[in-house]
Design goal:
15 helices, 2 domains, alpha+beta, 6-stranded mixed β-barrel, 14 strands, two-stranded antiparallel ribbon, 414 residues
Length: 414
């Protein structure tokens, strides 16, 4: 059973078809474009996050926190030394990685831990020499905290597992040195050198990584870098990466080492994506603002043209709140149709955009537009439309409610 107020609201609204269609079109466009822009910006952000987590893990534990107030060389020489960052003193590197790994077993969110030995090297092929970074890993540990197994584009990971003198080389570095799977090359560091063979070529899509990182078995890396013990950092994979900041705080308190969650390491890029998301949200909200102004104009015109009808309704016993509801129902009808059609438009365009070819290779690698399907985008778009349109509708609705039958008959209604 349709209420009398809703029936009257629909009749008033259909009396201004052209104005109603304009309000409806702007609402549909506003909701639809809001959904599409949020789906695309969030899609690229999430894909970037997945790429970063697949390379560097959710958390890195690096340097031991010191209580000393001065920067100085560590006793005994060697590679360890004191460093000062953000007012806190550190000894660079991890002296007892196995002890930290054992302590980390008490954290329930941890999926895996990989101790990594890192150092600068020069890579020499038959054609040229390039600077690079060696990462000494235990393969079984590292594949649990990264996507290295899925990033192999040439060769087999099993070849690396079975070859003590094998290496995993990034796609960009391999191309620059003209190396292919099975080719040999020389790594040089601190007066020592090793001849190794390319067991496989990987590609993360992050150009800076693919241009510099060479993965070796940890024993080979220790020999090359003259690091018989310790580790440069621990890379940690989490079941829930969003909890990394909270887990990092607890780990730093317990382990007394520098602990960096991925949100802190990549805060610059995350800020860029956040700014893009907000700017697009503001831009497409203009359509919703236009819809609210159109709704205001439509209802204001209806109030002017329907003063006699309003007088009749008031004379029949309709109260002010009933008249207000009639005009708010008109806005509600436009919103309901606009939100539903806008959500369908947004979903359709989002799917179409996801099919558009878009080769990207820089901070991540993809060959098409990346979108994300998230119910919050639809809720946010509809709520934005509801708030703006209903606020714009309140003014003419309240004006209509203030009209008195006697004033309308005398022609003095304001």
């Amino acid at each position: 059973m349709i209420s009398p107020n809703l029936r009257i609201a629909f009749r008033f609204l259909t009396a201004k078809k052209r104005a109603m269609v304009m309000s409806l079109a702007c609402t549909i466009l506003g909701v639809g474009l809001f959904i599409v822009t949020q789906a695309t910006t969030s899609g690229f952000e999430r894909f970037f996050t997945k790429t970063i987590l697949g390379i560097n893990g959710a958390i890195r534990i690096e340097d031991k926190i010191q209580d000393t107030m001065r920067s100085m060389s560590a006793p005994g020489g060697g590679d360890s030394h004191f460093a000062r960052r953000d007012g806190v003193k550190y000894i660079e590197g991890i002296e007892e990685p196995q002890a930290l790994i054992e302590a980390l077993r008490g954290f329930p969110n941890i999926r895996g831990v990989s101790a990594v030995v890192r150092g600068g090297v020069q890579v020499t092929s038959a054609f040229k020499t390039e600077d690079a970074q060696v990462f000494g890993i235990k393969l079984e540990d590292h594949v649990r905290v990264s996507d290295l197994a899925e990033q192999i584009t040439s060769g087999q990971l099993e070849d690396f597992r079975q070859a003590p003198a094998g290496a995993l080389v990034g796609r960009v570095l391999a191309d620059r040195l003209q190396l292919s799977v099975g080719d040999s090359f020389v790594l040089s560091s601190r007066g020592s050198s090793r001849r190794l063979r390319v067991a496989a070529v990987y590609e993360t899509g992050y150009r800076e990584v693919d241009k510099t990182n060479v993965y070796l078995h940890q024993a080979e890396a220790r020999s090359l870098l003259k690091r018989p013990s310790g580790a440069t950092f621990l890379q940690i994979g989490l079941y829930d990466p969003d909890r990394a900041p909270a887990d990092a705080i607890r780990m730093e308190q317990v382990l007394r080492h520098s602990v960096k969650p991925w949100q802190e390491r990549e805060k610059t890029w995350l800020a860029v994506f956040r700014a893009l998301r907000i700017s697009t949200m503001i831009t497409v909200s203009v359509f919703t603002l236009i819809a609210s102004l159109a709704m205001f104009n439509t209802l204001a015109m209806i109030v002017l043209e329907k003063t006699k009808d309003i007088a009749i309704l008031r004379s029949m016993g309709y109260e002010r709140r009933d008249v207000t509801r009639i005009f708010l129902w008109q806005a509600g009808i436009v919103l309901a149709i606009g939100a539903g059609a806008g959500a369908i438009l947004g979903a359709t365009v989002t799917w179409l955009v996801s099919q558009v070819p878009l080769p990207v290779n820089g901070i991540f690698k993809t060959d098409r537009f990346i979108v994300t399907w998230d119910a919050y985008h639809y809720v946010g778009a509809i709520l934005t439309a509801v708030v703006m349109v209903m606020i714009a509708s309140l003014i003419p609705a309240r004006r209509a409610a203030r009209l008195e039958p006697g004033d309308i008959v005398r022609g003095t209604a304001q």
